[in-house]
Specification:
about 325 residues; alpha/beta; five-stranded parallel beta sheet; about 35% helix; globular; binds phosphoric acid mono(formamide)ester
Length: about 325
């Protein structure tokens, strides 16, 4: 593996889950694999979980780690070609990338969507510049349109909890209100990974394979079909929640699919949308569902205190599984060097 962006990059998800379980039972099993290898983690945006879990994963594998916060201590980087650099950006990404590549063996990139130019974001321009110009394997630590390390950790978590209680889990991705415009990376990846798990008939519960996957959101927030084709979209949140085993809450801004001019925008004043917040009444509509969210989460907006603090909430084990997903991905990359 020399690039990690999508579920298909991992191939057989059953084998990936087997590797995840192996790592979880002994996370230092491959602690010499990364000897004298260096991971460079490049952050264009803030992070808590991705930063800690990916660094921990690299340490599990015996790697050295360098962390570069582009916006704190490095030269400000220009990412577009054809510009006259007479502003505050001192260096172009096209020089910076090969320089970064010369100091490491593997690169992780966090670079969020700008949410102004849909074509630029959905082409994954920054990520592909790293792939093209670094000469090193590159993996996404949340890019403009995807967050595969999160989605893999989510799948690991569902596999762990579904096996105890469901025959064929019903998993619901629900939009929830937020005061700021957020990217679509997490819901895109979650939808893609759930669809891929179902396509591969992944055994996650009792006798039946795959996942019943439903997406619910207000009209206008339709996700890009590249990530959702085949998924059921139910605009009535209550109907979507009925019988659910897992509720995965997330806000996202307008993906610009049914409202091209609205790309990256919040379509409704959030005060009018608070009935989408996941509270105890919402959870009563479900089949005693587990609550999931990638974190960070705004309480009172996305979810109420009682729901996120309930024993059925998986937000902490889900975050802890980020170490496992990152260890599997880095292991595979190191094995292919
Ligand atoms: N879920 C996640 O990626 O968290 P951070 O933004 O804190 O890394």
């Amino acid at each position: 593996m020399n690039s990690f962006l999508n579920a298909k990059d991992l191939g057989d998800l059953k084998e990936a889950l087997r590797e995840a379980a192996e790592i979880k039972s002994d996370r230092f099993r491959y602690d010499t694999l990364g000897k004298n290898k260096t991971l460079l983690m490049v952050f264009f945006n803030n992070s808590l979980r991705t930063r800690l879990s990916t660094q921990k994963a690299a340490m599990n594998l015996g790697m050295n780690v360098i962390v570069l916060d582009v916006n704190a201590g490095a030269w400000k980087l220009e990412t577009e070609r054809g510009v006259i650099m007479d502003g505050d950006k001192s260096e172009h990404l096209l020089e910076a990338i090969p320089v970064m590549g010369s100091f490491c063996d593997v690169i992780g990139i966090r670079s969020f969507a700008g949410l102004t130019d849909r074509d630029y974001d959905y082409a994954e321009t920054v990520y592909h510049q790293f792939v093209q110009h670094s000469g090193k394997p590159v993996f996404a630590m949340e890019t403009a349109t995807v967050h595969p390390l999160q989605a893999f950790a989510d799948l690991i978590t569902i596999s762990e909890y579904a096996s105890k209680r469901c025959k064929r889990p019903k998993v619901v991705l629900t939009w929830a209100p937020h005061p700021r415009a957020l990217p679509q990376a997490v819901p895109n990846s979650f939808a893609q990974w759930m669809q891929e798990a179902d396509r591969q008939a992944l055994p996650l519960g009792g006798s039946k394979a795959g996942i019943d996957f439903v997406i619910t959101h207000p009209e206008g927030y339709e996700l890009d079909p590249d990530f959702t084709t085949g998924a059921t979209v139910e605009y009535d949140q209550r109907k979507a929640f009925e019988g659910a085993d897992f509720i995965y809450a997330k806000n996202w801004s307008c993906p610009g699919v049914t409202h091209p001019a609205g790309y990256g925008k919040i379509l409704h004043d959030y005060h009018q949308m608070m009935h989408w917040t996941v509270d105890a009444e919402h959870m009563e509509w479900t089949n005693h569902a587990h609550f999931m969210h990638c974190l960070p989460v705004r309480r009172g907006m996305i979810v109420t205190d009682d729901v996120i603090e309930a024993p059925s909430s998986l937000v902490i084990p889900e975050a802890a599984n980020r170490e496992i997903s990152a260890t599997v991905i880095l292991k595979r990359i190191l094995q292919s060097l």
